[in-house]
């Protein structure tokens, strides 16, 4: 189906907006996928706050080139683009898990304005989810404070233990 110049301009504006809003972009070859496979993958992408779109390679390349990114070598054959709007590692995991089957393969991606290889996408997918990372970060931040509180409270706790032992020792002969 041929697109008019106006439609192409609208598509490019939409691509540019999605790339600008996303923290990461993943490029996938989908030539062997059926529409059912693509729809199932789109559902998984939506669950993690992302979107998957079939793009016109030339138009998407023009958008990336306009943004100063040379991804021409990644835009051959059929291209399905995953946009990670919220959690880049979660979207990378969706793409990476789906690429384990022979149906499609990861071509590469963008993290910010840097190109990523399929191996780097796999490494990003191996990161824990965002809530887990936040919890780990909070644990790292709170660890020194809790150690300080324990250190400050320890002399008082030790003194209370010694006094309690003396009281129990004094009460023991009186009870006997």
What does this 3D model show about the protein?
The chain is α+β, with helices and mostly antiparallel strands and 176 residues long. It has two domains: 5-127, 2-Layer Sandwich (Alpha-Beta Plaits); 128-176. It is built from six helices and five strands. Strands 2-3-1-4-5 form a five-stranded antiparallel sheet.
Main sheet characteristics: 5 strands, antiparallel
Can you tell me the number of structural domains?
Answer: 2
| C-alpha termini separation | 101 Å
Count of alpha and pi helical runs: 6
Number of strands: 5
Q: Give me the secondary-structure category.
A: alpha+beta
Q: CATH class of the largest domain, please?
A: Alpha Beta
- CATH architecture verdict of the largest domain: 2-Layer Sandwich
Biggest sheet: strands side by side, in what order?
A: 2-3-1-4-5
Low-confidence stretches: none
CATH superfamily heading of the largest domain: Ribosomal protein L10, N-terminal RNA-binding domain
The gyration radius over C-alpha positions equals 28 Å
């Amino acid at each position: 189906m041929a697109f008019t110049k106006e439609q192409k301009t609208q598509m490019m504006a939409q691509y540019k907006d999605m790339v600008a809003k996303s923290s990461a972009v993943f490029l996938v070859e989908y030539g062997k996928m059926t529409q059912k496979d693509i729809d199932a993958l789109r559902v998984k992408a939506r669950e993690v706050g992302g979107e998957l779109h079939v793009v016109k390679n030339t138009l998407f390349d023009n958008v990336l080139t306009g943004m100063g990114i040379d991804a021409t070598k990644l835009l051959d054959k059929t291209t399905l683009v995953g946009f990670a709007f919220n959690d880049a590692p979660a979207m990378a995991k969706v793409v990476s898990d789906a690429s384990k089957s022979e149906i499609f393969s990861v071509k590469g991606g963008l993290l910010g304005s840097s190109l990523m290889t399929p191996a780097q996408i796999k490494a990003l997918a191996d990161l824990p989810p965002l809530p887990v990372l936040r919890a780990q970060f909070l644990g790292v931040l709170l660890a020194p404070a809790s150690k300080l509180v324990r250190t400050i409270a320890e002399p008082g706790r030790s003194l209370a233990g010694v006094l309690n032992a003396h009281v129990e020792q004094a009460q023991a002969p009186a009870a006997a």
